[in-house]
Design brief:
By secondary structure, the chain is of the alpha+beta class. It has one domain: 3-Layer(aba) Sandwich (Rossmann fold). The chain has three helices and four strands. The chain has a four-stranded mixed β-sheet. Strand 1, helix 1 and strand 2 form a beta-alpha-beta unit. It is globular, with a radius of gyration of 15 Å.
């Protein structure tokens, strides 16, 4: 197994070589001016028809900052929250959003993870 510790933007990923890319908590920490590059990176990495899974902050889970505030404050405030329409707009340029739903909080004994302040998104590369 190979583990790397580096910026996602520095990764040397072979184009079209992945069936699945999963992001659990990275996207909501990416500054607004890097979003399009991130979407392009994920798209490049996936094979045609490949799947992208995302767990990210809903509005109530994030800092509440608008894009402009990130630069005015020089801070992401711990991460940005996204409204459903905004997430669809960002990911629909290259992907078909198959599922976008609020996570549910499962019972403790289930051994599963979920928090209602997070989105669960599943998209397919077109």
């Amino acid at each position: 197994m190979l583990l790397r510790h580096q910026s996602v933007f520095e990764l040397q990923l072979e184009a079209g070589s992945y069936d699945l890319v999963y992001d659990s908590g990275c996207f909501h920490h990416i500054p607004p001016h890097r979003r399009n590059a991130y979407v392009a990176l994920v798209s490049r990495a996936l094979k045609p028809g490949g799947l992208f899974g995302l767990a990210c902050f809903r509005p109530e889970g994030g800092s509440g900052y608008w894009d402009q505030e990130v630069y005015e404050r020089r801070s992401m405030g711990g991460g940005l929250g996204y409204a459903e329409e905004r997430l669809r707009e960002i990911w629909s340029s290259t992907f078909r959003v198959r599922v976008l739903r609020r996570m549910n909080k499962p019972s403790t004994e289930s051994g599963l993870f979920g928090e209602p302040f997070l989105w669960a998104l599943l998209a397919q590369k077109m």
